[in-house]
């Protein structure tokens, strides 16, 4: 089944001087322009292409990879403003993504970067973007368990912390007390379910909660020490940035974990770093 607005695998039917004709099934054939066609392609080969409609409502194929496909979020730069809305660069050179004024939470300016959800407008069949996320989120029950690892996208900054999109389905909150490292709008990363509250709201953590986070980090520290010949130039005096760059954890959790490993006799803590015990 062909999915417009997504990457599809299509068969090459014909080669011409200006491009390739691909089998688009119910849509007939579609053209992959020569400038986007790989070299040494033969009839019968299968190509992964992104499909979209051009300004004449013709189905077009490209090997360019969009920032976000239909049903996904992506950080995009506003390239222009018209009477119908804003146009964002979604990674397709020949066509910007329209964000209608009715789908904007606030008015944009050229050059601004915004997090956009891509969807197909049912009325027009056109692929468009929106920054009004609420109607796409929290539509299903949040069946998560504590310390469950999830994919998240940082979506908004508030006085309390950062709102994040969980698995493309639910809103979650990372409070400032649980935030560390470089967080910015559009960043995709792993997170952990800290709590699903009685009111249905979800609190997130960037590391496992409780004893679990120390056990997990302890295993990673020992594994990294083994890979690095038994020594790492990190200890409780190291900067939060250096610790985060290596283990993606807070300095507080790192200090507690190496303290526990030291008490267990698994490592020694030296002025220059930590070392596996013999």
Automatic annotation (TrEMBL):
Family: Belongs to the CvfB family.
Protein name, UniProt field: S1 motif domain-containing protein
Highest taxon listed in the record's lineage: Bacteria
Organism: Vibrio caribbeanicus ATCC BAA-2122
Gene Ontology MF: a single term: nucleic acid binding
Record domain S1 motif: where: 3-64, 69-132, 145-207
InterPro entries per UniProt: CvfB_fam, CvfB_S1_st, CvfB_WH, NA-bd_OB-fold, S1_domain, WH-like_DNA-bd_sf
Signal peptide: none
